[in-house]
Amino acid sequence: MINLIRNENMKIYRRARTWILIALQIVAIFVPLFFVQFNNDTDWRAAIVEENNMYAMELSESEQFLNEEDIQEINSRIEINNYRLEHNIAPESSLWNVVMEWSFLLQIGTFFIVIIASDAVASEFSWGTAKLLLIRPASRIKILMSKYIAMLLFAAIIFLLNFICPMLIGAFAHGFDGFTAMNLVMKDGAVQESYVVLDVLRIYLSEAIGTLMIVTLAFMLSTVFRSSSLSITMAILLLMFGKSITMLLGKYEWAKFILFANIDLTPYFNGGAPLPGMTLGFSIIMLCIYFIVFHVISCGVFAKRDIA
Amino acid sequence: MNTNGSNKPVLSLNGVSKVIKGKSLVKGLTFDVRGGEIFGFLGPNGAGKTTTIRMMVGLMSITSGDITIEGHSVKHHTSKAMRHVGAIVENPEMYKFLTGYQNLVHFARMYSGITKERINEVVALVGLQARIHDKVKTYSLGMRQRLGVAQALLHNPSVLILDEPTNGLDPAGIKELRDYLKKLAHEAGIAVIVSSHLLSEMELMCDRVAIIQHGELIEIQEIYEVTSEDEQQVLFQVDRPDEAISFIARQGTEVTRMEQGFLVSLDHEQTAVMNKKLVDAGIKVYGIAKQNKSLEDKFLEMTEGGIL
Question: From the list B85, B90, B109, which residue is nearest A6 (CB)?
Answer without folding.
Answer: B109
